[in-house]
Specification:
Layout (H helix, E strand, L loop, with lengths): L1 H9 L5 H8 L1 H4 L4 E3 L5 E7 L2 E6 H10 L6 E5 H22 L5 E6 L6 H11 L5 E4 L2 H10 L6 E4 L5 H12 L3 E6 L4 H12 L4 E5 L24 H13 L6 E5 L5 E2 L2 H21 L5 E3 L3 E2 L18 H16 L8 E4 L3 H4 L3 E11 L16 H11 L6 H20 L5 H22 L12 H4 L2 E5 L3 H4 L1 H5 L6 E3 L9 E6 L8 E2 L2 E3 L2 E3 L2 E3 L9 E5 L5 H4 L10 E7 L5 E7 L4 H7 L4 H17 L5 H16 L7
Parallel strand pairs: 4-24, 5-6, 5-14, 6-7, 7-8, 8-9, 9-10, 10-12, 11-13, 12-14, 16-18
Antiparallel strand pairs: 1-2, 2-3, 4-15, 15-16, 15-23, 17-23, 18-19, 18-22, 20-21, 24-25
Length: 643
């Protein structure tokens, strides 16, 4: 990256192909995102083998003309449909190629993205594949029952289940829903048995097993002996015995396990399948009427495009994933004479991640650049400031470390003098300016040094600009803050221009954690992002890509920043697009009500204050009306920066 950045300063021409390499969009974009000839990011969709691209700038213009200001969460329905097709058709190819005698049925875990528009599209488009839903709570079960048609996809019920949960699921069986209760803890079986007898409905049961296999990545705690959910070997045996005692062993039809949300290494996936199949074989021989094997989630998203076993990447393709699973099941079950089960996966992240993009505009920038340092030393200047001047003049490739150490010492001494009142503010400002010029000069000289001293590493990052984006990390990108998730971030236009600045991105919350300072680079994570200089009077738009999984559902109300505006678009075969759905983000009144304020009561309280100000002669009646209208308009307004 450093070489490209240096060259961009010296080269008159810059192409979108160079930007594509710099930001890695063709590595992590999975063909859905690219750069157009005009230098803007495009959304790409295939129609009968023909690839069509629509500029994100055009989409931004379209949603803004409909009254939706930045920030906007953009959902692309075509991409959601495409991911469902890819998953089902890849498993279909593997099943046909390897001669597997069972079938594949996917279920989408509602917790990954519970938004109505998302679940509705998955249910609508997924119906052609019998794609179902996974429900981990009573609320999610209600969503699944209302979204799916009976006799279509499976509903896999995970999580803790009380009598109400079980009763609803059992009655859904009579309506034709294939609703499977996965037993996660031993305490659930008595509830299921009691409700089954009370209603006279025999359940479809599954058992979640704790595998010994562990996986790499961020969610390793979902696997292994200490995983939070699932039955131990002893508890599995106890379950079989109790079901046999109740005359319900034939109800045990599914074996389930879950190793993690994002499994980067294909070997871990294969190891888990092989171990689970051993449980499947023995449970079948115990007399369980097994016919389903649920592998849980884990299909990873290559967020950085590196195709490695790094935590936010993956070292396998979708076809390899499907083929390895099918082959592993066959290699274990065939020698035992066990029939091939229906394969179920709960692939949530890979299904929805690509379909959502957070779009926002840049509001302002802070530069860390010194003003020109006059060579002439003013009369009466403190000796330590003069020492800083001499350090600046003497910088060369051989004394970078020494000069930096000296400059740090002089600056700290000058700051102490200011604290004691021995120099004035203007003198301190001069010293800080000279120090900044020293740091910038050292950073420039370091580009020609073969080995950078350890203490000088990161010096360039300390000089990076701060670009202020109109969004909240905590609301829209909580994983950036909570688990240091790395998402692809880049400008959505101007890619025919050289990005001559380096920056981090801050949000508009008053919190030091409200920032993005880890970005995708060609050799791993980098701490700054190449950006373009702001042009006065022109908007500068950014996109954070692959944010469809978990980010909407985990967001919080830090600084009372609410949900953003949302637009769902569908790209048409003629290259146009429709804004299929639009939803205004939270108003200030909305978020105040979430934290137990009553907006109308607040307005009444403020009206009383304004009326008292009239009585005291502080404002006129007309001014009172104006301030009340401003208060009321703010209640109706967007929680983000409005033009």
């Amino acid at each position: 990256m450093k070489t490209a950045a240096v060259r961009s300063l010296k080269t008159a021409a810059w192409t979108s192909a160079e930007s594509a390499d710099l930001y890695g969009i063709r590595s992590w974009g999975a063909g859905y995102f690219d750069l157009g000839e005009d230098g803007s990011v495009t959304v790409n969709v295939n129609f009968d083998g023909k690839r069509l691209g629509v500029s994100l700038l055009d989409i931004i213009a379209g949603v803004q003309s409909r009254g939706l200001q930045m920030p906007v969460l953009l959902r692309i329905e075509n991409i959601l449909d495409a991911q469902i097709s890819l998953l089902n058709e890849s498993f279909g190819r593997a099943i046909r190629t390897l001669g597997y005698l069972g079938e594949y049925r996917g279920v989408f875990p509602i917790k990954v993205n519970q938004q109505c528009q998302v679940i509705g599209e998955i249910a609508r488009f997924g119906a052609r594949y019998g794609h179902g839903l996974e429900a981990g709570s009573k609320a999610e079960l209600l969503i699944a029952l209302a979204s799916l048609d009976p006799d279509s996809g499976y509903i896999v019920c995970n999580g803790y289940k009380d009598s109400e949960f079980v009763s609803l699921g059992l009655q859904a069986l009579k309506l034709g829903y294939r609703c499977i209760f996965v037993i996660e803890t031993p305490t659930e079986l008595p509830i299921i048995v009691e409700e089954s007898r009370r209603l006279g409905i025999r359940p479809m049961l599954g058992a979640r097993v704790k595998l010994a296999a562990r996986v790499g990545g961020h969610w390793t705690e979902s696997s292994g002996d200490r995983s939070l959910f699932g039955l131990t070997t002893a508890q599995i045996v106890q379950l079989v015995d109790e079901l046999r005692g109740h005359g319900m062993l034939d109800c045990l039809q599914l074996l389930h396990y879950h190793l993690g949300s994002q499994i980067p290494n294909i070997r871990d996936i294969r190891s888990g399948v092989l171990e689970a199949c051993r449980y499947y074989v023995d449970l079948a021989k115990e007399g369980a009427a097994l016919g389903y094997l649920d592998l849980g989630g884990g299909l990873a998203v290559d967020y950085d495009g590196s195709q490695t076993n790094y935590g936010f990447s993956k070292n396998y393709s979708l076809d390899e994933y499907c083929s390895d699973i099918v082959e592993a099941i066959m290699s274990t079950l065939d020698p035992e004479g066990i029939a091939h089960p229906v394969i179920i996966t709960e692939s949530g992240r890979a299904t929805v991640a690509y379909s959502s993009v957070l779009l926002f505009n840049i509001l302002d920038v802070t530069h860390f650049e010194p003003a020109p340092v006059p060579e002439a030393r003013p009369k009466g200047e403190h000796e330590l400031i003069g020492n800083l001047r001499e350090s600046l003049k003497g910088i060369n490739p051989k004394n970078l470390q020494e000069t930096f150490n000296d400059a740090l010492y002089y600056r700290e001494e000058i700051r102490d003098l200011f604290k004691r009142g021995q120099i004035r503010l203007r003198a301190l400002s001069v010293a800080e300016n000279i120090f900044l010029e020293i740091v910038r000069t050292i950073a420039r000289e370091m580009q020609g040094v073969k080995r950078v001293p350890t203490s000088l590493e990161g010096l360039e990052e300390s000089l990076a600009d701060i670009y202020y984006g109109n969004f909240s990390v905590f609301q829209s990108l909580p994983d950036v803050w909570a688990i240091e998730q790395v998402f692809p971030v880049m400008p959505v236009h101007r890619h025919n221009e050289a990005p001559t600045r380096q920056a981090i991105i801050a949000d508009i919350t008053c919190d030091s954690d409200g920032k993005i300072d880890r970005f995708i680079g060609p050799r791993g994570v980098r701490k700054t992002l190449p950006v373009h200089p702001l042009v006065e009077g022109e908007p500068y738009y950014f996109g954070v890509f692959l944010v469809g999984a978990y980010q909407e559902t985990l967001g919080d109300l830090h600084n009372l920043m609410g949900d953003t505006n949302v637009a769902s678009v569908r790209i048409n075969e003629d290259g146009t697009f429709d804004v299929a759905r639009e939803m205004a983000g939270d108003s200030i009144a909305d978020v105040l009500s979430y934290v137990e304020y009553q907006p109308q009561q607040l307005l009444e309280q403020f009206r009383t204050t304004a009326e008292q100000a009239v009585r005291k002669g502080r404002i006129s009646v007309g001014e009172r009306q104006a301030v009340l209208e401003a208060f009321s308009a703010s209640l109706r307004g967007y929680t983000y920066y409005e033009d």
